[in-house]
Amino acid sequence: MRKSFCVLILILSIFLLFSCGTGNTSDSARDTGTETASETKKTYGPALFYEVCSAEKALELSVGSNAVVFEERGCTSGQETWDAFIGSVDKKIPASVLCSFYYPGKFTDDGMNKCFFYLLEFDGNEFNLSIRESDSEEKATPATFGYLRHYTGDAPTPDALYSSYEYYVLTDDPNVTWEDIWRGMASSFSGDFISHSMVYKNYSGWKGN
Questions:
Q1: Which of 53, 71, 160, 193 is 20 to 30 A (C-alpha) from 40?
Q2: What is the reported pTM?
């Protein structure tokens, strides 16, 4: 009788051990948020570049993922992310950063809000830039630049909406000035245009809404 009782206890112990082990595995997955982490990864940082969504959703996700967000008045979110990227560039350490440029309808040709993702990658020597509109499924073709130039200065006219600016611009000329680039854009001669891409903008003394 005692032997049968011991066998029964042993069987129950094994069953309970298996049940608890199974339960712990499931609870652990829930506690670590495996599914949530996977979903978050889809829209976090550089991965957000591939998300197809509306301009409004892109802006929301960009702010939530610490991407560097730019609106009319300049950088509105993610400044620390940008500073960390620049810190890596200064040390020649490969790094990447996602920038989101949001334009309300008053600045677009069709009057619709738009958001453009800029995925900027630094390999320790050159910069690769890919751009795509948030609601487009078209793949972006990367462009390569040799330099990331930093420009600061005062507003060009007294009636400007800001008192001073700060830009980071990709170029292939280490000595080109912002004035050179601006003149090239304003010129009616295509040969005056200087290949570049602005990837950061911020303003001090903003006077707009």
A1: 71
A2: 0.77
Tens of pLDDT, residues 31-43: 333 333 334 334 4
pLDDT in tens, 98-157: 999 999 998 898 999 999 999 999 999 999 999 999 999 887 779 999 999 999 999 988
Burial state string for 107-144 with b = 16 or more CB within 10 A and e = fewer than 16: eeeeeebbbbbbbbbbeeeebebbbbebbeeeebeeee
Compute φ and ψ for 89, nearest 5 degrees.
-60, -45
Q: How far apart are CA 182 and CA 176, in angstroms?
A: 11
Using the structure block, give the residue that is written with the tokens 């969504």: 53
Query: What distance in Å separates the CA atoms of residue 144 and residue 158, rounded to the nearest whole number?
Result: 36
What is the DSSP code string of 46-111?
A: GGGGG----HHHHHHHHHHTT-EEEETTEEEE-HHHHHHHHHHHHTT--EEEEEEEEE-GGGSTTS
Measure Cα distances from 185 to 16, 180, 195 in Å.
Answer: 75, 9, 10
Pairing of strands 196-204, 164-171: antiparallel
Return the structure tokens found at 204. Answer: 């001090």
